[in-house]
Amino acid sequence: MEQRGTITRMGIVIRLAVSAFTVWLATLVIDGITVEGTTGRKVLTVLVVAAIFGIVNAVLRPIIKTIGCWAYLLTLGLVSLAVNGLLLMLTSWIAEKLDLAFHVDEFWPTAVLGALFIGIVSWVINLVIPDGGDKDRNNSRRQPPPPPRQQYRPQNYR
């Protein structure tokens, strides 16, 4: 059981590192998403922002999807781009309140493209570097079930 907890904690650390890396990449690629400070301060800021973004997504996204399921259906899921952009803007606002040097300038196109970039790059990296939990689930799915046990039946010989 302890092994399973270690895998889960390792998975969280890997996901946080991947998210932090993609947030940092977004600051390089998308104009309007900035992180400032010395190198050590930037690393800490990006790690905290990745954690904030993960928590914001984990808490608010299911609520938004439940309340706004009609909008997701009506737009065939395109509203999720706007929702992701708004969640990135909320992350920027929370970071500002925590005196972190992370800022997203505007909703369109900065926040929407930034959230899209972060989502796609994180997805690709998570395909290449699965966390510990994914590895266990994939291995259990790939193994065929054991064959059924044969019951011994005495046969009538003539």
Automatic annotation (TrEMBL):
The chain crosses the membrane at residues 12-30, 42-60, 72-95, 107-129. It comes from the Bacteria. InterPro entries: Phage_holin_4_2 (IPR007165). Residues 134-158 are annotated as: Disordered. Keywords: Membrane, Transmembrane, Transmembrane helix. The keyword Membrane applies. This is Phage holin family protein. It comes from Dactylosporangium siamense. The lineage of its organism: Bacteria, Bacillati, Actinomycetota, Actinomycetes, Micromonosporales.
